[in-house]
Amino acid sequence: MVSRPKSPSDVELLRFLAREEPFALALRAFPGLNRERLSKALERAADALREPSSPPLPPPVPAKVRVYSDGAARGNPGHSGAGAVLVEPSGQVLDRVGKYLGVKTNNYAEYMGLLLGLRRARALGVSEVEVFADSELMIRQLGGRYQVKSTTLKPLYDEAVRLLNDFSRVKLVHVPREMNRAADEMSNRAIDERL
Fold this sequence. Notes:
The protein is of the alpha/beta class. It folds into two domains: about 10-50, no CATH class; about 65-195, Ribonuclease H-like superfamily/Ribonuclease H (Nucleotidyltransferase, domain 5). The chain has helices at about 10-20, 25-30, 35-50, 105-125, 135-140, 155-165, 180-195; strands at about 65-75, 80-85, 95-105, 130-135, 170-175. The protein has a five-stranded mixed beta sheet with strand order 3-2-1-4-5, with helices on both faces. The chain is globular, with a radius of gyration of 18 Å.
């Protein structure tokens, strides 16, 4: 006997599309529409379909998450994007965030990717973070090994330090680019889709 895969409910399908679908055709068909607005519309539709008698319980927030962050600039400076992926210790992805930044430098985009991830972790109520980034400069600046001489990066650095101080425990890790693919994908997606 062959078992069939469970068919998703309309709510599950809409929520999956809101999180995972690139929406490239819709974004091209409707100038001025962005991925965030389209995702929110799908989330509202999913909320409208949900049974009022059985509100879903929010998933428990882990005390500790890994924040993979990255920035991309096509040219330096050039069109840029920032991205972050939050991952539970078990390896389950909690959230993906991305933001189009306009024409900025790669180092600016790297810091913005970190800020996106830290802000999201704080909003979720996480108490401990492990930051993984492929920007050796940023990790060494945040670790106190390098000074921040750029007047453009200094406010971003200051905000990152403030956010990091909000967590009870912080670990900063420089990783090779290959270990940061998910965050790299989000930063490039932010450029492509103008998130």
